[in-house]
Amino acid sequence: MRLLTVGHSKVLFQTFKVCRDVVRQQSTQNGPPLAQTVVPPVKRFRKTKMIGMVAAGGIVVGTATFLGRIFLSEYRSEVDPKHYYSDWKIRLYTSLPLAATSRCFGYVANVTIPVFLRETLFGTFASMYNCRLDEAIVSDLKSYPSLASFFNRALKTETRPISAVSLVAPADGIVLHYGEVVDRKIEYVKGHDYDVTEFLGPSVPHVKTGNALYQIVVYLAPGDYHAFHSPADWKVNEKVHHPGFLLSVKPSILDWIPRLFCLNERIVLSGAWKHGFFSMSAVAATNVGDINIPLGSAEKEVMKTETHAVFSEDYSYFRGDKVGEFRLGSTIVLIFEAPKTLKFAVQAGDKLRYGQSLIIKDF
């Protein structure tokens, strides 16, 4: 590269000054240069004010619509005063972004946790919810890569012996409700009844003479083992997915919101056992937007509506077989046909371990 001499530098400087003067003269004739063109303060203020007013108007309209939907009684509440939309407090609760929160939790539950944090995190959770870590096949907390894997930890076979009777508990949990389904109505709380078809979907059980329809509801708390197992030897011929809310299924919420099980997202497996109709339903809840039920390759969608999707199945289960798993505990509902002589071996409030007998004697 050749260095510029002093003479060269002077020539370049003079050339630059001439070009600058020409550009300035043309800019003066054609108007102010682009760099000097600015929006007057008054116009800028008006534009900003207009944007602010539009945004504020949108917020006011959105808020008014939301509050109106919550506090103003709907026409449906006059026709059906028992439903969730009859109470503004319930409408407010069902309007919360529980689904989005649950989806986020589902994502977090599957994130791989650094090894150095696992023992502290899982140990704290186990202590808070009284998890029986001694029952797990793998007792080393560092071996669980995520929250989901910890929730669904495999248990030692000897800790959950499968009873020899034909109906056993499907999961660890608490019995919320049990008994006969009278006139096809299920009633968990007095005055909160709903038709069995509303919960199950298109699978309408036809009860044979001499039999009755029964139900039992098992609630899985956060500290419970989160997988659920087959309560009987039976065959699944249909699966129905019902989209819906992800409301909490805690007993206190169930007492408050009518027909909550019919509002929440759920998967219903229906088929038959030796006494007739048999169904097993996994109900989703807050922070439980992920229900995993792997079935055979014969699954085929046969119908889809705005309220549910129906799949044909051809799959058999034996007592104790693993059916699926939740991500943070929820509810299992059994609705089944059995002889009128059936006697339950459990009471509401009893703590269950999957595989234990649900009936006093076989039939």
TrEMBL record:
Pathway per the UniProt entry = Phospholipid metabolism; phosphatidylethanolamine biosynthesis; Lipid metabolism
Arranged from A to Z, the UniProt key words for this protein are: Decarboxylase, Lipid biosynthesis, Lipid metabolism, Lyase, Membrane, Phospholipid biosynthesis, Phospholipid metabolism, Pyruvate, Transmembrane, Transmembrane helix
- Listed GO CC annotations: mitochondrion
Instruction: Give a GO molecular function annotation for the protein.
Output: phosphatidylserine decarboxylase activity
Q: What is its EC number?
A: 4.1.1.65
Q: If you read the UniProt record, what top EC class would you report for this enzyme, in one word?
A: lyase
Task: Kindly list the residue ranges recorded as spanning the membrane.
Answer: 50-72
Which cofactors does it use?
pyruvate
* GO BP terms: phosphatidylethanolamine biosynthetic process
Q: Which domain of life is it from?
A: Eukaryota
Q: Which NCBIfam families match?
A: PS_decarb
Role, per record: Catalyzes the formation of phosphatidylethanolamine (PtdEtn) from phosphatidylserine (PtdSer). Plays a central role in phospholipid metabolism and in the interorganelle trafficking of phosphatidylserine. May be involved in lipid droplet biogenesis at the endoplasmic reticulum membrane.
Protein name (database record): phosphatidylserine decarboxylase
**Which organism does this sequence originate in?**
Panagrellus redivivus (Microworm)
